[in-house]
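Exercise 7.
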Amino acid sequence: MDKKLLLILNPTSGRGAAAGSLFSIVKGFSETGWETTVIPTFGKGDAQKIATQRAGDFPFLVCCGGDGTLNETINGLMARETRPLLGYIPTGTTNDFAATLGLPHNPEEAALKIGDGKPFCYDVGELNGRYFSYIAAFGIFTEISYSTPQPFKNVCGRVAYFLEGIRQLSSITHYRIRVDWDGESLEEDFIFGAVTNTLSIAGAQTHFVDGVELNDGLFEILLIRNPRNFFELQTIVTLLLKQELNPKYFTFLRASSLTFSSDSEIPWTLDGEYGGSFQTAHIQNHPRAMCICVPKDESATD
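Solution. The predicted structure, written as C-alpha coordinates, is:
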Protein backbone atom coordinates (compact mmCIF):
# COMPACT_ATOMS: atom_id res chain seq x y z
CA MET A 1 0.00 0.00 0.00
CA ASP A 2 1.23 3.49 -0.90
CA LYS A 3 1.37 5.07 2.57
CA LYS A 4 0.59 8.66 1.61
CA LEU A 5 -2.29 10.52 3.20
CA LEU A 6 -4.01 13.84 2.71
CA LEU A 7 -4.86 15.80 5.86
CA ILE A 8 -7.66 18.36 5.49
CA LEU A 9 -7.26 20.67 8.47
CA ASN A 10 -9.79 23.18 9.80
CA PRO A 11 -7.50 25.60 11.71
CA THR A 12 -10.35 27.36 13.57
CA SER A 13 -11.93 24.24 15.07
CA GLY A 14 -11.88 23.72 18.83
CA ARG A 15 -10.34 27.04 19.88
CA GLY A 16 -7.61 26.57 17.26
CA ALA A 17 -6.67 23.14 18.64
CA ALA A 18 -6.28 21.69 15.16
CA ALA A 19 -3.72 24.26 14.01
CA GLY A 20 -1.88 24.16 17.33
CA SER A 21 -1.58 20.38 17.15
CA LEU A 22 -0.46 20.12 13.52
CA PHE A 23 3.13 19.10 14.30
CA SER A 24 1.95 16.45 16.80
CA ILE A 25 -0.55 15.08 14.28
CA VAL A 26 2.00 14.82 11.48
CA LYS A 27 4.48 13.27 13.95
CA GLY A 28 1.89 10.66 14.95
CA PHE A 29 1.23 9.71 11.34
CA SER A 30 4.97 9.62 10.60
CA GLU A 31 5.52 7.20 13.48
CA THR A 32 2.97 4.84 11.91
CA GLY A 33 4.62 5.07 8.49
CA TRP A 34 2.48 7.68 6.76
CA GLU A 35 3.75 10.56 4.63
CA THR A 36 1.38 13.48 5.17
CA THR A 37 0.27 16.24 2.82
CA VAL A 38 -1.64 19.05 4.59
CA ILE A 39 -4.28 21.33 3.05
CA PRO A 40 -5.99 23.85 5.39
CA THR A 41 -9.53 25.11 4.95
CA PHE A 42 -10.30 28.82 4.90
CA GLY A 43 -14.09 28.87 4.89
CA LYS A 44 -17.34 26.94 4.71
CA GLY A 45 -17.43 24.37 1.92
CA ASP A 46 -13.64 24.12 1.51
CA ALA A 47 -13.37 20.63 3.02
CA GLN A 48 -16.01 19.31 0.65
CA LYS A 49 -14.27 20.80 -2.41
CA ILE A 50 -10.85 19.50 -1.37
CA ALA A 51 -12.20 16.00 -0.69
CA THR A 52 -13.89 15.82 -4.08
CA GLN A 53 -10.93 17.17 -6.02
CA ARG A 54 -8.04 15.41 -4.28
CA ALA A 55 -9.48 12.12 -3.00
CA GLY A 56 -8.26 10.24 -6.07
CA ASP A 57 -4.65 11.14 -5.31
CA PHE A 58 -4.41 9.43 -1.90
CA PRO A 59 -5.35 6.02 -0.46
CA PHE A 60 -6.07 7.62 2.92
CA LEU A 61 -7.82 10.96 3.48
CA VAL A 62 -8.01 12.41 7.00
CA CYS A 63 -10.01 15.43 8.12
CA CYS A 64 -9.22 17.33 11.31
CA GLY A 65 -11.91 19.53 12.84
CA GLY A 66 -15.40 19.23 14.27
CA ASP A 67 -18.40 17.23 13.12
CA GLY A 68 -19.13 19.96 10.56
CA THR A 69 -15.73 19.45 8.93
CA LEU A 70 -16.36 15.71 8.86
CA ASN A 71 -19.78 16.29 7.29
CA GLU A 72 -18.29 18.42 4.52
CA THR A 73 -15.57 15.85 3.87
CA ILE A 74 -18.09 13.02 3.60
CA ASN A 75 -20.22 15.03 1.18
CA GLY A 76 -17.14 15.56 -0.94
CA LEU A 77 -16.26 11.86 -0.90
CA MET A 78 -19.81 10.69 -1.61
CA ALA A 79 -19.66 12.64 -4.89
CA ARG A 80 -17.01 10.16 -6.09
CA GLU A 81 -17.58 6.64 -7.37
CA THR A 82 -14.45 5.33 -5.66
CA ARG A 83 -13.44 6.62 -2.24
CA PRO A 84 -10.25 6.40 -0.18
CA LEU A 85 -10.22 5.25 3.41
CA LEU A 86 -11.44 8.10 5.63
CA GLY A 87 -9.81 9.22 8.87
CA TYR A 88 -11.10 11.68 11.45
CA ILE A 89 -9.20 13.65 14.10
CA PRO A 90 -11.82 15.37 16.28
CA THR A 91 -11.11 18.89 17.58
CA GLY A 92 -14.63 20.34 17.76
CA THR A 93 -16.86 21.15 20.73
CA THR A 94 -18.96 17.97 21.01
CA ASN A 95 -17.56 15.47 18.43
CA ASP A 96 -20.50 13.08 18.68
CA PHE A 97 -19.44 10.79 15.87
CA ALA A 98 -15.91 10.52 17.27
CA ALA A 99 -17.38 9.38 20.59
CA THR A 100 -19.42 6.73 18.82
CA LEU A 101 -16.33 5.42 17.01
CA GLY A 102 -14.11 5.50 20.09
CA LEU A 103 -11.70 8.04 18.61
CA PRO A 104 -9.40 9.80 21.12
CA HIS A 105 -9.86 13.55 21.64
CA ASN A 106 -6.11 14.13 21.93
CA PRO A 107 -5.02 14.93 18.34
CA GLU A 108 -1.63 13.20 18.50
CA GLU A 109 -3.14 10.11 20.13
CA ALA A 110 -5.88 10.09 17.49
CA ALA A 111 -3.26 10.24 14.71
CA LEU A 112 -1.36 7.31 16.24
CA LYS A 113 -4.55 5.27 16.70
CA ILE A 114 -5.95 5.74 13.20
CA GLY A 115 -2.52 5.68 11.56
CA ASP A 116 -2.30 2.10 12.81
CA GLY A 117 -6.04 1.46 12.83
CA LYS A 118 -8.56 -0.75 11.07
CA PRO A 119 -11.27 0.11 8.49
CA PHE A 120 -14.90 0.14 9.56
CA CYS A 121 -17.60 0.56 6.92
CA TYR A 122 -20.74 2.30 8.16
CA ASP A 123 -24.06 3.61 6.86
CA VAL A 124 -24.33 7.14 5.48
CA GLY A 125 -27.61 9.06 5.49
CA GLU A 126 -28.94 11.35 2.77
CA LEU A 127 -31.56 14.10 3.13
CA ASN A 128 -32.73 15.66 -0.14
CA GLY A 129 -29.31 15.23 -1.73
CA ARG A 130 -27.20 16.24 1.28
CA TYR A 131 -25.33 13.51 3.18
CA PHE A 132 -24.91 13.13 6.93
CA SER A 133 -22.83 10.87 9.17
CA TYR A 134 -24.91 10.38 12.27
CA ILE A 135 -27.94 12.66 12.66
CA ALA A 136 -30.59 14.61 10.77
CA ALA A 137 -32.87 16.51 13.14
CA PHE A 138 -35.50 19.25 13.39
CA GLY A 139 -37.18 21.16 16.18
CA ILE A 140 -36.23 22.28 19.68
CA PHE A 141 -32.48 22.48 20.43
CA THR A 142 -31.45 21.60 16.86
CA GLU A 143 -30.51 25.19 15.95
CA ILE A 144 -28.12 25.47 18.89
CA SER A 145 -25.00 24.12 17.21
CA TYR A 146 -25.19 26.35 14.16
CA SER A 147 -26.86 29.46 15.68
CA THR A 148 -24.56 29.82 18.71
CA PRO A 149 -21.69 32.15 17.72
CA GLN A 150 -18.37 30.33 17.25
CA PRO A 151 -16.42 32.67 19.63
CA PHE A 152 -18.99 31.90 22.34
CA LYS A 153 -18.56 28.15 21.75
CA ASN A 154 -14.78 28.52 21.76
CA VAL A 155 -14.79 30.26 25.14
CA CYS A 156 -17.58 28.38 26.90
CA GLY A 157 -17.44 24.96 25.22
CA ARG A 158 -20.43 22.75 26.08
CA VAL A 159 -21.77 25.38 28.48
CA ALA A 160 -22.62 27.45 25.41
CA TYR A 161 -24.93 24.70 24.16
CA PHE A 162 -26.58 24.40 27.55
CA LEU A 163 -27.20 28.15 27.89
CA GLU A 164 -28.58 28.43 24.39
CA GLY A 165 -30.80 25.42 25.04
CA ILE A 166 -32.31 27.01 28.15
CA ARG A 167 -33.07 30.13 26.13
CA GLN A 168 -34.90 28.10 23.48
CA LEU A 169 -37.22 26.48 26.03
CA SER A 170 -39.19 29.75 26.14
CA SER A 171 -39.95 29.66 22.40
CA ILE A 172 -40.93 26.14 21.39
CA THR A 173 -42.22 25.69 17.84
CA HIS A 174 -44.26 22.66 16.85
CA TYR A 175 -44.88 21.28 13.38
CA ARG A 176 -47.75 19.27 11.95
CA ILE A 177 -45.91 16.47 10.15
CA ARG A 178 -46.80 13.32 8.26
CA VAL A 179 -44.17 10.60 8.44
CA ASP A 180 -44.18 7.73 5.92
CA TRP A 181 -41.97 4.64 6.19
CA ASP A 182 -42.11 1.00 5.07
CA GLY A 183 -45.78 1.19 4.06
CA GLU A 184 -46.76 2.81 7.38
CA SER A 185 -47.53 6.42 8.27
CA LEU A 186 -48.48 8.74 11.12
CA GLU A 187 -49.45 12.40 11.34
CA GLU A 188 -49.12 14.44 14.53
CA ASP A 189 -47.73 17.65 16.01
CA PHE A 190 -44.04 17.29 16.91
CA ILE A 191 -41.54 19.60 18.61
CA PHE A 192 -38.52 17.46 17.77
CA GLY A 193 -37.46 14.69 15.46
CA ALA A 194 -34.12 12.93 14.98
CA VAL A 195 -33.04 10.36 12.42
CA THR A 196 -29.85 8.88 13.83
CA ASN A 197 -27.05 6.41 13.31
CA THR A 198 -25.04 7.02 16.48
CA LEU A 199 -24.47 6.15 20.12
CA SER A 200 -23.86 9.78 21.15
CA ILE A 201 -25.93 12.95 20.69
CA ALA A 202 -24.86 16.42 21.95
CA GLY A 203 -21.94 14.90 23.82
CA ALA A 204 -24.06 12.41 25.77
CA GLN A 205 -24.26 8.66 25.35
CA THR A 206 -27.71 7.47 24.27
CA HIS A 207 -29.21 4.33 25.77
CA PHE A 208 -32.82 4.70 24.67
CA VAL A 209 -32.87 1.37 22.87
CA ASP A 210 -30.76 -1.73 22.53
CA GLY A 211 -29.24 -3.13 19.39
CA VAL A 212 -28.04 0.07 17.71
CA GLU A 213 -25.69 -0.88 14.87
CA LEU A 214 -23.88 1.61 12.65
CA ASN A 215 -23.86 -0.66 9.60
CA ASP A 216 -27.22 -2.49 9.61
CA GLY A 217 -28.88 -0.33 6.94
CA LEU A 218 -31.35 1.10 9.47
CA PHE A 219 -31.84 4.45 11.17
CA GLU A 220 -33.14 4.91 14.70
CA ILE A 221 -35.85 7.61 14.66
CA LEU A 222 -37.05 9.49 17.74
CA LEU A 223 -40.05 11.86 17.59
CA ILE A 224 -41.29 14.02 20.47
CA ARG A 225 -44.94 15.05 20.50
CA ASN A 226 -46.05 18.59 21.22
CA PRO A 227 -46.71 19.02 24.97
CA ARG A 228 -50.14 20.42 25.85
CA ASN A 229 -48.85 22.44 28.78
CA PHE A 230 -45.71 23.32 30.75
CA PHE A 231 -46.18 20.33 33.05
CA GLU A 232 -46.01 17.94 30.10
CA LEU A 233 -42.90 19.75 28.86
CA GLN A 234 -41.26 19.25 32.25
CA THR A 235 -42.23 15.57 32.11
CA ILE A 236 -40.67 15.20 28.66
CA VAL A 237 -37.40 16.80 29.82
CA THR A 238 -37.32 14.53 32.89
CA LEU A 239 -37.93 11.43 30.77
CA LEU A 240 -35.15 12.46 28.37
CA LEU A 241 -32.73 12.88 31.25
CA LYS A 242 -33.73 9.44 32.53
CA GLN A 243 -33.63 8.10 28.95
CA GLU A 244 -37.10 6.61 29.17
CA LEU A 245 -39.30 6.56 26.07
CA ASN A 246 -42.86 6.85 27.36
CA PRO A 247 -45.10 6.26 24.28
CA LYS A 248 -47.45 9.01 25.47
CA TYR A 249 -44.81 11.59 24.54
CA PHE A 250 -42.37 9.77 22.26
CA THR A 251 -42.50 7.72 19.10
CA PHE A 252 -39.54 5.47 18.30
CA LEU A 253 -39.10 3.47 15.11
CA ARG A 254 -36.46 2.00 12.82
CA ALA A 255 -36.41 2.39 9.04
CA SER A 256 -34.04 2.53 6.09
CA SER A 257 -36.05 5.13 4.18
CA LEU A 258 -38.67 7.64 5.29
CA THR A 259 -40.33 10.88 4.27
CA PHE A 260 -41.39 13.86 6.39
CA SER A 261 -44.12 16.10 4.91
CA SER A 262 -45.51 19.37 6.26
CA ASP A 263 -47.48 22.39 5.03
CA SER A 264 -44.69 24.66 6.24
CA GLU A 265 -40.95 24.60 5.62
CA ILE A 266 -39.04 22.91 8.43
CA PRO A 267 -35.36 23.72 9.11
CA TRP A 268 -33.14 20.65 9.44
CA THR A 269 -29.79 20.15 11.11
CA LEU A 270 -27.33 17.67 9.61
CA ASP A 271 -24.44 16.61 11.86
CA GLY A 272 -24.81 19.85 13.83
CA GLU A 273 -24.84 22.14 10.77
CA TYR A 274 -27.78 23.85 9.06
CA GLY A 275 -29.00 21.53 6.30
CA GLY A 276 -31.78 23.56 4.70
CA SER A 277 -35.53 24.09 5.15
CA PHE A 278 -38.03 21.84 3.38
CA GLN A 279 -41.74 21.05 3.23
CA THR A 280 -40.83 17.52 2.16
CA ALA A 281 -37.70 15.79 3.44
CA HIS A 282 -36.84 12.37 2.03
CA ILE A 283 -34.19 10.53 4.03
CA GLN A 284 -32.39 7.46 2.69
CA ASN A 285 -29.88 5.09 4.26
CA HIS A 286 -26.84 4.12 2.14
CA PRO A 287 -25.58 0.91 3.78
CA ARG A 288 -21.83 0.73 4.43
CA ALA A 289 -21.20 3.55 1.97
CA MET A 290 -18.17 4.97 3.81
CA CYS A 291 -15.17 3.22 5.35
CA ILE A 292 -13.49 5.07 8.19
CA CYS A 293 -10.35 4.15 10.14
CA VAL A 294 -10.91 3.35 13.82
CA PRO A 295 -8.59 2.16 16.60
CA LYS A 296 -7.79 -1.53 16.51
CA ASP A 297 -8.92 -1.90 20.12
CA GLU A 298 -12.35 -0.29 19.53
CA SER A 299 -14.91 -3.03 20.20
CA ALA A 300 -18.00 -0.95 19.30
CA THR A 301 -17.13 -1.29 15.61
CA ASP A 302 -16.36 -5.00 15.52
